[in-house]
Design a protein that fits this description.
The protein has 4 domains: 157 residues, MoaB/Mog-like domain (Molybdenum Cofactor Biosythetic Enzyme, Chain A), CATH 3.40.980.10; 58 residues, Molybdopterin biosynthesis moea protein, domain 2, CATH 3.90.105.10; 84 residues, Molybdopterin biosynthesis moeA protein, domain 3, CATH 2.170.190.11; 73 residues, Beta-clip (Beta Barrel). 17% of the residues lie in helices and 30% in strands. The protein is built from 7 helices and 26 strands. It has a 6-stranded mixed β-sheet, with no helix packed on it. Helix 1 packs across helix 6 and helix 3 runs parallel beside helix 6. The chain is elongated and about 90 Å long. The model has no long low-confidence stretch (mean pLDDT 92).
């Protein structure tokens, strides 16, 4: 068995960033930039008013009240062609271009009007309520960097920089193949000795959330020719993910059967719980990640190993899974030589400290507890006994952190 950290390094090291493709802004949500986005324009392109009011020369209002003569108005999207001279003002609106000669804006609440006579009731500071040219960004500046995942905010920024099209990494294509005569897909007839499989659907959702493009190959039988035929459907995928068949039983066929069609094995078995029987290798140009069949093991391994692989293909330089400290609410016995990932819930004390409570039962077949979980407690190999109230490391499973 190899350590978790070594397995992650060997998996991510087997992938390179994928080629770029050009997409429209409408398709860009969640995609990862392949190139820096450089501003094509300056924003704002000229000095504009930040408020509705009057454009003035601050020097004309050394004290108040002061009365100026209105010589025009400039709605947003238009330009005032004359110059503002001593004793003059121009009606202006939010986003309107500042007229030549004016250097301040007096908000309309601080004025009274009598025809074209505008009385100012507050002394302005030079430059007040003006957004200068380039306040947001200037042409030629890098606004968004390659490797950044595009959020709605980032898409809005790209649009502001006048980019209707963006260069992004192609989504990794992930083929998913469940194995086993004992499982059926949701909605299919259930035999007397069968159970409903959740792995394909859960993994597809995980792949999507990580930025990949999943496609299901169905369920392969525990039979050599059938497994070979269905695995052939992964041709063209960047990675084939199998579930089940990775252990040592007579019907656990993935390693031996796929070896007959060219599987080059990198490693098998990891010192972790859940998820010890895990296969990594390649079949031609397609990498293989063989996950355990138990649903919790499958999903935890997807988070720990498949997610970094997808992030690597998307061009991320940092593919590490973030760990946060938390205070544990119950004692734990000393750990053995396998790295543990314990399902747990979270709470927050009055002082803001995050508390974590592991479920008493950690059976790797229990999806109900994984669905309730808000974090995984990470315990390294040979971790000594942990007392109630001690600090432990966790992987949060929501609130912007990875979902499984």
């Amino acid at each position: 068995m190899i350590p978790v950290a070594e397995a992650i390094a060997r998996i991510t090291g087997a992938f390179d960033p994928l080629a770029a493709e050009t997409i429209s802004l409408a398709e860009a949500s969640g995609r990862v930039l392949a190139e820096d986005v450089v501003a094509r324009n300056t924003q704002p392109p000229f000095d504009v008013s930040a408020m509705d009011g009057y454009a003035v020369r601050a020097a004309d209002i050394p004290d108040v009240p002061a009365t100026l003569t209105q010589i025009g108005a400039v709605p947003a999207g238009q330009n005032f062609n004359a110059q503002v001279c001593a004793g003059e003002t121009v009606r202006i609106f939010t986003g309107s271009r500042m007229p030549t000669g004016a250097d301040s804006v007096v908000i309309q609440e601080n004025t009274t009007t009598d025809g074209d006579q505008i009385t100012i009731s507050e002394v302005p500071n030079k430059g007040q309520f003006i957004r200068p040219s380039g306040l947001d960004f200037r042409a030629g500046e890098i606004g968004l960097k390659a490797g950044q995942r595009l959020s709605p905010r980032g898409i809005g920024y790209a649009a502001s920089m006048n980019h209707p099209w963006l260069s992004v990494r192609r989504k990794p294509r992930v083929a998913i193949l469940a194995t086993g005569d004992e499982i059926v897909m949701p909605g299919e007839p259930i035999g007397a000795n069968q159970i409903v499989s959740s792995n394909s659907h859960a993994l597809a959702a995980a792949v999507q959330s990580y930025g990949g493009e999943p496609f299901s190959l169905g369920i392969a039988p525990d039979e050599r020719q059938g497994l070979k035929a269905m695995a052939a459907g992964a041709r063209g995928a960047d990675i084939l993910v199998t579930t089940g068949g990775a252990s040592v039983g007579d019907h656990d066929l993935v390693k031996s059967v796929l070896g007959e069609i060219g599987l080059e094995l990198d490693f098998w078995k990891i010192a972790m719980r859940p998820g010890k029987p895990l296969i990594f290798g390649r079949i031609g140009d397609t990498r293989l990640l063989g996950l355990p069949g138990n649903p919790v093991s499958s999903m935890v391994c997807a988070l720990i190993f498949l997610r970094p692989a997808i992030l690597r293909m998307l061009g991320f330089s940092n593919t590490d899974t973030a760990l946060l400290p938390a205070r544990i609410d119950s004692a734990l016995a000393a750990n053995d030589g396998r790295q543990d990932y314990l399902r747990a819930t979270l709470n927050r004390s009055e002082d803001g400290t995050i508390g974590v409570s592991p479920f008493k039962r950690q059976d790797s077949s229990m999806m109900s507890l994984l669905a309730e979980s808000e974090a995984l407690i990470v315990r390294p190999p040979y971790d000594p006994a942990v007392n109630e109230g001690s600090s432990v490391n966790i992987i949060p499973l929501s609130g912007g952190f990875p979902e499984i």
